[in-house]
TrEMBL record:
Keywords carried by this UniProt record: ATP-binding, Nucleotide-binding, Transport
MF-aspect GO terms: ATP binding; ATP hydrolysis activity
Native organism taxonomy: Bacteria, Candidatus Eiseniibacteriota
Listed name of the protein: ATP-binding cassette domain-containing protein
Pfam families: ABC_tran
The UniProt record lists the keyword Nucleotide-binding: yes
PROSITE patterns reported in the protein's UniProt record: ABC_TRANSPORTER_1 (PS00211), ABC_TRANSPORTER_2 (PS50893)
Organism field: Eiseniibacteriota bacterium
Length: 242
């Protein structure tokens, strides 16, 4: 007969993070990110808030592969991706400045980077364009759209890549409040239905509270008060935000 007391305890296996910055530092001379560590669990929405110039965008660019940290590493599903080029990281990134292609129409911009062009993809394109309120713009040139429309196109392009990690850098800053609420509700549905992990950068902490599971704050290249504070479902406040 087995003696339960003599058996080794079962140690649960931790689920790898969808994305993790581990002690990341980056010195650009006039500004530096200093030993930043943030974990994004699968299916989690993490909001990084802070004033302009806090280092939020740089942190996303390190994760996306456009900047390489001087020290520390970036993990994706438990794998070190610090030295991988952006196209091999399987991360959808919506930059603050949209980065649309002016020689392509809206439809071609949405499909840029999408390899398959089958019926399912075309149906997904039509659905996303309708939900983002840009279906009427598909044949329009980029120089004939507004800043808010450009942000929605960039967001739609990222979603069409059908990846499970989405980085958003002030992606609704050019939208009015009503449209921002509509896009936020749409993203919340996308997150649940497609099991997305989301990292959102914003300086508007009030809006972040409505969508995020976890909120961290940055100031002058550092995380502020990284200890977990009071848990207020569904938001875990870190750094006194909210």
């Amino acid at each position: 007969m087995r003696n339960p007391a003599s058996e080794s305890p079962v140690v649960p296996i931790a689920t790898p993070a969808a994305l993790e910055w581990c002690g990341v530092s980056l010195d650009l001379g006039e500004f530096a990110i200093q030993e930043v560590s943030v974990r994004v669990d699968p299916g989690q929405w993490v909001c990084i808030v802070g004033s302009t110039g806090a280092g939020k965008t740089l942190l996303l660019e390190v994760a996306a592969g456009f900047l390489r940290p001087g020290s520390g590493c970036v993990l994706r599903n438990g794998q070190d991706i610090t030295t991988l080029p952006p196209e091999r990281r399987r991360i959808a990134y919506v930059p603050q400045d949209d980065l649309l292609f002016p020689h392509l129409d809206v439809r071609s911009n949405l499909l840029f980077g999408v390899r398959r062009r089958d019926t399912a993809v075309m149906e997904r394109l039509a659905s996303i364009a309708d939900d983002l309120g840009i279906a009427h713009l598909l044949r329009r040139k980029i120089d004939a759209i507004s800043g808010g429309e450009a942000q929605r196109i960039a967001l739609g392009r990222a979603l069409l890549l059908d990846l499970d990690l989405l980085l958003l850098d002030e992606c609704t800053s050019a939208l009015d409040e009503e449209t921002r609420e509509i896009i936020g509700a749409f993203l919340a549905v996308e997150r649940r239905s497609r099991d997305l992990s989301v990292v959102q950068v914003t300086h508007e902490s009030a809006g972040a509270l409505r969508l995020a599971d976890v909120i961290v704050s940055m100031d002058k290249g550092r995380l502020v008060n990284r200890e977990t504070g009071v848990r207020t479902s569904p938001v875990e406040r870190i750094g006194g935000i909210g």
